[in-house]
Specification:
alpha+beta, Beta Polymerase, domain 2, Hydrophobic Seed Protein, 4 domains, 4-stranded mixed β-sheet, two-stranded antiparallel ribbon, 12 strands, elongated
């Protein structure tokens, strides 16, 4: 009768919540909410192993996120079943590594995903700072949890043993935790703490140095004092990690809500100096000039530009962080002895390309960040012509216009100005929008084409045709009123003489 009343549409959501809180204890309701967040396919995989008599637990970041009531992206199970036994139970699974992890492709709410099922294991010595030299199957979940990186990731969850009081097809009613390193306490205290001795953990896999900063950044946690001290001591070990793995962690930091704070942690830990040493060259280099808004040194300005950039895209945020990285190389002084950075955007583009290649960014990502840094000094003078606005669009690409404006806003606010957009920038943006509507003027929009050139000059297809079309386009782009067939045919004759 009670649950029938709760299901009535006329009962308000507020009343339902009150009834639920009265009916369940806080702990019971919390546990049930955890269970309800676990997809059926994950429960099915869990039950398949359990019903065959194997020990099985949910582990890793998924358990952490369940406890924190935040979305789970990756579902991991740990079991005493061996990889061969796991693949026998799950016909669609695959095993292509030496570390006991079997992949099980699944569909979760219409999204293709993979449940990783890993055999309990203990690990041998790490010689390359990346992976263990040997792996042995373990016997207990505690053995397995002891090899993990941080206490908040070393929590295992299992469902209370089936006692016959419920239908086996129903979701379980209770959960139990294996938490030998007090990870739940650290979650409550918002603390990142290494499992066991941090000196060993970071020397096993040096990427954990960045993972600590990344997880702290994403979750707004603090890093435990002993763990933080060891990160600082071992920062140089990150040199042993591939650019791809460093890139992935860095972009996750930059893509988080706390990207500025995370980057400051990278700097204070010594990791930033190892990852992007070029950025640290701006420390202590003053930008002060009479009448200019810059008051901070180059490094601080780059960091603040990242902080104030309105974009959420990690590549554009990286561009904001690096946009003035060329200033130390371009540093000079004028006749009055005042600091100058002539053509620093050109020097910066070259440096950024090297950084992008070192981090193994894709070709598209590299082109994007190099373009943003190379052309970030664009003028917004209200006296520039419409043709100049169109050249700006072609130079950076239509796809980069919004990113470039976001970079300029970060640059302004990071330099100490109080407003995100000056009246000139607002006017320039309107002019850009006008040129983009419905689309920017291009060579295909001219009143003539290559066929007209060949007909007027009596020539065959070749490079000369493209050269004439480009010359005509540049003329018309300066004055769109010249884009008439009559005028352009005459110009073809003139250019063909």
């Amino acid at each position: 009768r009670f649950f029938f009343i709760l299901s009535e549409p006329r009962i308000s959501q507020f009343v339902r919540v009150v009834f639920i809180l009265l009916y369940y204890s806080r702990e019971e309701y919390f546990m049930e909410s955890i269970i309800n967040k676990i997809p059926k396919v994950v429960l099915s995989a869990y039950n398949t192993l359990k019903d065959k008599g194997y020990k099985v637990y949910l582990v890793g970041g998924g358990v952490r996120n369940l406890l924190m009531d935040i979305p789970v992206k990756d579902w991991d199970l740990s079991t005493n079943a061996t990889p061969d036994e796991i693949t026998t139970l799950f016909k669609d699974s695959y095993y292509n590594n030496l570390f006991g992890t079997v992949g099980l492709p699944v569909d979760i709410n219409g999204t293709k995903s993979v449940i990783e099922i890993t055999t309990f294991r203990s690990e041998g010595e790490y010689k390359d700072r990346r992976r263990p030299e040997s792996v042995e199957w373990g016997k207990t979940i505690e053995d397995d949890l002891s090899r993990r990186d941080f206490t908040i990731n070393a929590i295992a969850l299992r469902f209370a043993p089936f006692d016959g009081s419920q239908d086996k097809q129903d979701k379980p009613s209770e959960v139990e935790f294996a938490d030998p390193f007090n990870g739940r306490v650290d979650i409550k205290n918002k603390l990142i703490k290494a499992v066991g001795d941090p000196k060993k953990r970071f020397k096993e896999d040096a990427l954990r140095l960045m993972r600590a900063v990344r997880i702290a950044t994403q979750l707004s946690f603090t890093i435990d004092d002993a763990t933080w001290k060891e990160i600082q001591n071992d920062a140089k070990l990150i040199r042993d990690i591939s650019g791809e793995r460093i890139r992935d962690e860095l972009l996750k930091i930059l893509g988080s809500e706390n990207s500025y704070e995370g980057t400051i942690m990278l700097k204070d830990s010594g990791l930033l100096e190892e990852i992007i040493p070029e950025l640290l060259e701006g420390e202590g280099i003053s930008q002060a000039r009479p009448g200019r808004h810059h008051t901070e040194d180059v490094l601080t300005h780059n960091l603040l530009s990242l902080k104030h950039s309105p974009t959420k895209n990690s590549i554009v945020r990286l561009a904001a962080l690096l946009h003035d990285v060329g200033k130390p190389k371009a540093l000079g002084k004028d006749e009055e002895g005042l600091v100058t950075f002539y053509n620093h955007e050109v020097a910066g583009a070259k440096i950024v390309k090297e950084i992008a290649q070192r981090l193994r960014l894709s070709k598209k990502e590299t082109e994007r960040i190099v373009t943003l840094v190379r052309w970030h000094m664009f003028t917004v003078d209200e006296k520039i012509t419409d043709a100049a606005v169109r050249r700006f669009i072609r130079r950076i690409g239509v796809e980069n216009v919004t990113d470039m404006m976001d970079l300029r806003i970060g640059d302004r606010l990071g330099g100490g100005t109080q407003t995100a957009e000056s009246w000139r920038l607002k006017l320039f943006k309107k002019r850009v929008e006008k040129e983009l509507s419905p689309k920017p003027f291009s060579i295909e929009d001219m009143a003539i084409d290559g066929n007209d050139v060949m007909k007027e000059l009596g020539i065959k297809p070749g490079r000369r045709i493209g050269e004439i079309l480009q010359a005509l386009f540049e003329e018309v782009d300066e004055d769109l009123s010249k884009n008439t067939k009559e005028h352009l045919l005459q110009r073809i004759k003139d250019l063909g003489k």
